[in-house]
Amino acid sequence: MSAILALLATGLRLAMPILIAALGETFAESAGVLNIGLEGMLTLGAFAGYVVAEHTHSVVVALLAAIPTGLLGAELLGWFVIRARASQLVVGVLFNALATGVAAYLYRLDCPPGVTLATLTLPKTDALGLTLPFYALLLLVPLAEIALRRSRVGLNLRAAGEAPQAAATAGLDVERLRMWGLRLSCLAGALGGAYLVVCQIGLFRESVVAGQGFAALAMVIFGRWRPIAVAACAVLFGCLDALQFVIQLDAARMPPQLFLALPYLVSALAISGLFGRARQPAALGVPWRREQRD
Amino acid sequence: MRSTSVAQRRLHEPTRVPLIGRRTFATLALAAIPGFARATRPFRVALIMNGTIGDGGWNQLAYMGLQQVSRAGCVTGYAENVAQADVMAMSRGYAEDGYDLVIGHGFEFTATFQEIGPDYPDQSFFVTAFAPDDTIPKNVAFVDMNYYALSYAAGALAALIAPAGRGVGFVGGQDNPSQRRMMYRFEDGARATVPGINAMGIVPGDFNNASLGREAASTMIGHGAGVIWHAADVTGLGALRGAEEAGVRAIGCYTDQWMVAPKAVASSTVINIPWMVEEIVRLTQARAFPGGGIWAPRLDQLWAMKWRGGTVNPALVTAAAADRFAQIWSGLSNGTINPQPATGG
Questions:
Q1: Quick count: other Cβ atoms within 10 Å of Cβ B66?
Q2: Which terminus of chain B has fewer CB atoms gathered within 10 Å of its CB, N or C?
Q3: Residue B5: what pLDDT?
Q4: At B223, is the secondary structure helix, strand, or coil?
Q5: What is the largest distance, in Å, between two alpha-carbon atoms of chain B?
Q6: Domain B147-271+314-334 belongs to what architecture?
Q7: How big is chain A by its Cα radius of gyration, in Å?
Q8: Rounded to an integer, what distance in angstroms lies between the CA atom of residue A160 and that of residue A27?
Q9: Residues contacting A226, CB < 8 A, separation 6+
Q10: What CA dihedral angle connects A132, A138, A143 and A145, to 10 degrees?
């Protein structure tokens, strides 16, 4: 396997959880909801996936555990940020803390400190080190692109995020559309977490997500709220991480800190406006009030 | 002039109610004498960690040490997952609450304890990290955990068990000078034991990212590594998984990690942090706290090689390799082997 192919495969493996979460977040943000709680959703999904895989020994069932987990998380978040119109930023931050606490508590019931649980058996990989679920989940990228950019539902969703007043005047239920955007974000977040644990590392700790939810939030901005671009950015982010490994080995005399910062440096440059302005959905993060229609 | 009896005078005088009883007063007076209060109430120990007590390694072991201290009669408190921004407030909080010994578990506490130590001269502060170059306050102590000798030993064992023609690799955690030096000493140990061996290392920049750990290990395996050792918490667990997935050998760290990758783990460099916590509490209680300096236990006091109740996995480590490694370990512990840095800083 050539060095470039190996680097690309490593980048793809590193990117997948971020990619899945970022795709879902694109729907939420397009509908006007900024889901800062994505990191917490990844953590809860990772825990749910771990527990289900441990008991069922089935990768598919463990990945499916993300569905109820994501929906439950979405209902909780949605009640605060959509129904009660609380600050999306504050609620998201609190949700992340809550999710970490819940996952840690439940995990410690199963595995108190001092006890090491058996790790999961990971799915078989091909020559590139990629698994069957990886390829299956990759199909989400064109599906998301079609759903968000080329379908009536996607158009309605984007209307709720761009001009909720106009959307409501046209007869759309903005609250409902935003709720569906949030549900997709939470579902994808939980799925990304479950994939990380069940298909990539085969073990759980409450810190296992390690900021990948926040990286997904950055990828949505980096990809300018377009699913294919968001996915490409996530892969680029993963490849830059993979590149710093290779550079540390092959160019040991160069300052390693520069390469450790590489993924974040490129992300910061991409959202800085140097390469054209990124225009976010006009009503992103702005609570929708039904009475505004009157 | 009208005279009044003693009894009448007492009746008209305001009643003098003492603010505190004699017994309470005596207790408070004695408590004000430094040292007496400590002798009469349980010793109080606080542990502050920047990770989780369920990490299966570094923080979990410190927590286990704290539990042992608690069972021995000390009053204990702990805080986990403390963000860097909260280290100062958390440390001052425990000091204000009157804890006799505050343990900051990791290098992240160095600057904070150096700063707040002089503000609480009757309490002791212990950082489980190397000492800084600055002057250390009298009530602050650091520890030399023999990381460099340990890394040299791990490199030696990795080289001894590497299949012919394969190299050895190190996966670090957060990028800091200690982790880099550990990587260099690991490479030194490997090369000194098997001259010409391909020794390499990656410091991914995070202690808690298993995904990065796995891919760092995979990248080194792609570059010819046949044995992986790590010195990172959750990141290291990912490295062990990566080694097992790729069918190469691995050496765990901090705890006996054979269960994380049963087919790959040949042994683990197990740190006796519970002993360290108990020992520093004992020293502090005995007024022998090594304040103002560095506490330096021996390599074999703090570290041991462990695998499922034994030392090494006999399926992956030959008897000859185990014997040779035992000699190196003994030499590093008693100081007859004192390797000078050959690589890096």
A1: 26
A2: N
A3: 47
A4: coil
A5: 119
A6: 3-Layer(aba) Sandwich (3.40)
A7: 19
A8: 11
A9: A26, A145, A149
A10: 180
Write out pLDDT tens, residues B298-324.
Answer: 999 999 999 999 999 999 999 999 999
Among A3, A78, A20, which residue's Cα sits nearest to residue A230?
A20
d(CA B339, CA B325): 15
Specify whether the CB–CB gap between B110 and B133 falls below 8 A. Answer: no
Question: Amino acid letter at B341?
Answer: P
- Per domain, the residue ranges of chain B are 41-143+274-299, 147-271+314-334
At A83, the amino acid letter reads R
Distances (CA, A) of A205 to A93, A100, A246, B70, B250: 20, 10, 27, 25, 20
Measure CB to CB from residue B215 to each of A14, A113, A205 and give the nearest one: A14
State the nearest Cα–Cα gap between A16 and chain B, in angstroms.
11
Mutate to test the interface with B, among A54, A203, A253 (most CBs of B within 10 A): A203
Q: How far apart are CA B321 and CA B160, in angstroms?
A: 6
Encoding tokens for residue A118? 């058996």
Q: Which residue, chain included where needed, has tokens 């403390």?
A: B82
For A96-115, how does the pLDDT look when each residue is reduced to its tens digit (9 = 90+)? 999 999 999 999 887 776 66
What local confidence, expressed as pLDDT, does residue B57 receive? Answer: 77
| ipTM for the whole complex | 0.88
Superfamily of domain B41-143+274-299: Response regulator (3.40.50.2300)
Closest to B171 in 3D by CA, of B92, B110, B229: B229
Mapped onto helix, strand or coil, the DSSP state of residue B122 is coil
Cβ proximity of B100 and B123 under 8 Å? yes
- Closest C-alpha among B125, B231, B120 to residue B181: B231
Q: Which residues contact B203 (CB under 8 A, 6 or more apart)?
A: A248, A256, A260, B171, B172, B173, B174, B175, B179, B180, B183
CB-side neighbour CA atoms (13 Å) of B111: 5
Cα gap B16→B70, rounded to integer Å? 44
Which residues in A lie closer than 8 A to residue B202 (C-beta atoms)? Answer: 245, 248-249
Domain B147-271+314-334 in the same topology as domain B41-143+274-299: yes
Residue of A nearest to B64 (CA): A114
Domains along the sequence of chain A with CATH = 3-281 (1.10.3470)
- Look at A203 and B255 and tell me if their CB atoms are within 8 Å: no
Q: Using CB atoms, which residue from A112, A203, A245 is nearest to B216?
A: A245
